């Protein structure tokens, strides 16, 4: 039996870039990488999908407002304000807002520059 996660497509999500810095001049070996900080707002009933991984894109998330449900390995975990989670190479997940109010997170990660 396969252990796959299935998530609806993204809906009700707004992503705002807050800051970014080119890491190449800052840290040897990081050419082509960027540290970015985004604010992600998920409306009630919204989904941040599809299922995605963080291989080669580590990060961390902090919840400012509302509750976000993180789906990993068939387990749904709710995170509220003041809490967050790491996203490392072992992370494969999708997110949703099951609540009645907007959920807002700050996401900081290292990505390849576009």
UniProtKB/TrEMBL annotation:
Protein name in the entry: Cupin type-2 domain-containing protein
Cited InterPro entries: Cupin_2, RmlC-like_jellyroll, RmlC_Cupin_sf
Gene3D superfamilies: Jelly Rolls
Entry superkingdom: Bacteria
Pfam annotation, one family: Cupin_2
SUPFAM superfamilies assigned: RmlC-like cupins
Domain Cupin type-2 stretches: 39-103
């Amino acid at each position: 039996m396969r252990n796959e996660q299935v998530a609806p497509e993204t809906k009700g999500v707004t992503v705002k870039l807050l800051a970014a810095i080119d890491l190449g001049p800052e840290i040897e070996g990081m050419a082509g990488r960027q540290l970015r900080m985004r604010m992600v707002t998920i409306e009630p009933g919204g989904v941040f999908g599809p299922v995605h991984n963080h291989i080669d894109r580590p990060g961390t998330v902090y919840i400012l407002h509302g509750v976000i449900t993180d789906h990993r390995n068939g387990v749904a975990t709710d995170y509220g304000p003041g809490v967050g989670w790491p996203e490392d190479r072992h992370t494969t997940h999708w997110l949703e807002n099951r609540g009645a109010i907007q959920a807002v997170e700050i996401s900081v990660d290292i990505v390849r520059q576009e």
